[in-house]
Predict the structure.
Amino acid sequence: MSNKAILIIGVLLVLLTIGFASFLFRPGSDTVEMPKQIDPMAEPTSIVMYKNEGCECCTKWAAHMEAEGFSVKEVAVPNLNDIKQENGISYNLSSCHTAKVGGYIVEGHVPVADVQRLLEEQPEAIGLTVPGMPIGSPGMEVPGREADHYDVLLIHKDGSTSVYSSY
């Protein structure tokens, strides 16, 4: 290989290194940002959903979650209120099913986007709830019926709540 070819290869390697470094080290940042890699072989996030035997709206909610890449295990229990009480869900915050995901409780017909946001942000909280069973929430769709307005509430560790999102 000639000296000219070696010089050209060397210059190209230096330029590539500088370009990659400028991609990783962004101005105004003290940290290195690695590009996010999507692993097609990654396991889906698991959800365990406790429900009453035969509740179809719960199964429909599970289908919404599975359509967005979650893995949902449905568990029919004889006394759902015990599960709710054990996990800090008071009567006024309850719905027809109680799910556990990523260390949080997801009570009722919470939209997928809110569960994804919860898992991404990881707030100090018990979890999320959509109290009751509002028409139009995931799993509670009724053809020909306008959706109800409803709030998704963040349940804080002390049992208080704040609005997480509104629909």
